[in-house]
Structure formats: structure tokens, C-alpha cells
Amino acid sequence: MPAPDSITDKLDQIQSGRESRGQRTRLGLQEAALRLLGHDKSFSSLSLREVTREAGIVPTAFYRHYQTMEELGQDLVADSFRTLRQMIRSVRTDGLPSSGNMIQGTVQVLVQHIHANRLHFQFIARERFGGYSSLRASIRDEIHAFGQDLATDLAQFPILNRWDPESVQMLTTLMVNTMVSIAEQILEAPANDAAAEAEIVRRAERQMVFISLAVPAWKPKAAKPA
What are the protein's UniProt keywords (predicted)? Predict the structure, then answer.
């Protein structure tokens, strides 16, 4: 399964002449912010001068692309969830890994994606409950939209395509919350601690199994007619 394009991948494409210089600078600002956030900083603590210095441009050039730091943060939120949606689309197109069952495959793909896009996930984890209120709202909206995408996929299963929308939404909320919890635990685990990560994965798989076991027993409020 091909990995989603990272900001660095996009910069490589731009440098090969496929994008404009302005887009290169815009993505350079995003990458600079992510690098700075990798030093345990919150986005709200970053200054415009820090980001432009890290990106190698003068501060006045920032305003050709963003009016405020919050606008830059909005772009980072959108890009972070774009990579996640690309992962889900790839899973839907290519199928889950052949080894293991569906739940194990889902968790495996998610953990791989977290490692491949660690800075994005760290940014989302930190800003989800702190920093700018506009970023918190955007993250909530993106998580909700991700749940709606998942609901569309789940509706293709025979046991679920007769459920009422509220029941499907509750199921996807449980699954999305579990995936968010997995991401946060992976990010907080000690670096290079394979045993700690294996335990996180084991618990996550059990949680997903518990959710799946409840599906056949659930009685939707108003099932669709056959």
C-alpha cells in the first residue's frame, strides 16, 4: 500500500518543477512549524519569527501566504487529516494486510501510519484540547468528518446497511475514539520500546473486538425495510 504524500514529499515534487515557488514557500512554512513542534512545543507558543527563521525566509514573506499563525495552523490540521483519509482510502482500495484478521490489520495499518506521520499526529494530539480555539474546533470537525467517511464504508456491510443513521454514527464514534486513543498512547510511549507498543496494540485489538462483538446484538431504533 503506497504511503500518503508527506509535506517533504510534496516539497520534493515542487523542487522538481511540478508546483509554483509560492506553493514551495507555503509548504516550507508548514514543515518548519512541524519541526519546531517536534521539540515538545505547543503551536500557540510558536512565534511568526521562529517559524520564518526555521523556514529560511524573512518575516514579511509570511504574509504573502497567511494572515495569521492561526491560518497556518488550519492548514496543518487539514494536511494532517488529509494523510489519514488517504490511508483509509488506500485500505479500502488495496485491502487490509493478508496476515491476521480484519481488526489486527486495521490496527497494524494505523500504527504504521502514526509512525510515518508522527509530527502530524503529535500536532493534533497537543492542539486537540489546548491552544487556539479555532484549531480545536477544526480538529473536532475533521474527526467528525472522518467518522462520517467510516460510516459510509461500514454501511456496505450487510449487517449494518439496515441500521438507522444514529446507530451507525454511535458505532463509528466508538471506533474513531479508539483509534484516537491508540494514536495518543503510541505517541506517549517511550521511544523504541517495542514491548510497550506491543501492549498498546494488544489492548487496542481487544477493544476493537469488544466493539465488533456488540454489533450483532444491537437492536437499531428503526431498521430499514428489506
Answer: DNA-binding
pLDDT exceeds cutoff 50 at 136: yes
- Is residue 52 within 8 A of residue 25, CB to CB? The reply is no
Helix segments in the chain, DSSP class H: 7-13, 21-37, 48-55, 59-62, 69-94, 102-116, 118-127, 133-154, 165-188, 194-214
Q: Are residues 76 and 107 in the same domain?
A: yes
Structural domain containing residue 43: 11-66
Q: Please tell me whether residues 25 and 79 are part of one structural domain.
A: no
Distances 162 to 49, 165, 214 between C-alpha atoms, Å: 54, 9, 16
pLDDT digits 0-9 by tens, 67-91: 999 999 999 999 888 877 777 666 6
Residue 222 domain-assigned?
no
User: Residue length, the chain?
Assistant: 226
Mean pLDDT of the chain: 81
Give yes or no for residue 182 having a pLDDT over 70.
yes
225 found inside a domain: no
Q: Is the backbone of residue 58 left (phi > 0), alpha (psi -120 to 50) or beta?
A: beta
Q: 149 with 62, same domain?
A: no
53: CATH:
1.10.10.60
Task: State phi, psi for 218 to the nearest 5 degrees.
Answer: -75, 135
